[in-house]
Design goal:
With 239 residues, the chain is mainly alpha-helical. 66% of the residues lie in helices and 0% in strands.
Length: 239
């Protein structure tokens, strides 16, 4: 445990950077805050290193998540995810991970940072608890908090608990950001694999007003006739 420090993690991570990868990272990083900095390390390398540091103490994880470097923050949320998934992790630690995620959400500022950790760090923790905070996040002005609200329900979907996915999707139905639209469409599609009738009821209610991107993702697994039906309803529903 003594060697699992933020300083050592960053040193080892920095040794993996490359100019070629630095060019690639800018293509999918969507938060344009000039404070963001990049090392240029492949995702596979970050995940592998995070696995080696998965027993890192919480105080050291927090140091990572506060880093100005995107790849260091990816490492932080990956460690959090590994810990949240580990069957040996105590209930106390799972709460600490959840609290840290919420506390530091301003540093979780890209779609992959959310997707890498929200399902188990947030969704896994809340599964047997009140979920009011997800509805608060769904109404946030922060796009990444809104994405967290829907992405966290992935854990629920895996347990065939679908209600909150559709309810939160309903709150986000007119979200202006494409990365929230895609997440909503993807998650109701996944819920629909478990309960197609629930998906059809959702689409019957919301298809006319859904952004086209969201609808395309939501109907991806429906047959051609069903897709065309909802696309037509969507077209007619637009002014």
């Amino acid at each position: 445990m003594s060697g699992l420090t933020a300083k050592i993690f960053i040193t080892q991570l920095s040794a993996l950077k490359s100019p070629g990868e630095l060019k690639n990272v800018h293509r999918f990083f969507r938060d344009k805050d000039p404070k963001n900095k990049f090392l240029g390390v492949r995702m596979a390398s970050i995940f592998k290193l995070a696995k080696d540091f998965m027993d890192m103490p919480l105080r050291e994880i927090e140091k990572l998540i506060q880093s100005e470097f995107y790849e260091v923050r990816i490492g932080a949320v990956s460690i959090m995810d590994f810990q949240a998934r580990d069957k040996k992790t105590t209930a106390v630690r799972k709460k600490e991970l959840f609290d840290l995620y919420i506390k530091c959400h301003n540093r979780i500022n890209n779609w992959d940072l959310v997707d890498r950790s929200a399902p188990y760090v947030v969704g896994g923790y809340l599964f047997d608890k009140p979920r009011k905070i997800l509805y608060q996040l769904a109404r946030s002005k922060n796009v990444w908090e809104r994405r967290t609200a829907i992405v966290s329900t992935y854990f629920f979907i895996r347990q065939n608990d679908l209600s909150d996915t559709f309810k939160i999707a309903g709150i986000l139905i007119n979200d202006p950001h494409d990365l929230v639209q895609k997440a909503v469409g993807s998650w109701v599609r996944e819920a629909g694999k478990r309960d197609k009738l629930a998906l059809i009821e959702f689409l019957d209610q919301f298809a006319p007003e859904m952004p086209a991107t969201m609808l395309r993702y939501a109907t991806e697994k429906l047959d051609k006739k069903e897709k065309l039906y909802y696309l037509e309803r969507n077209r007619k529903g637009k002014p």
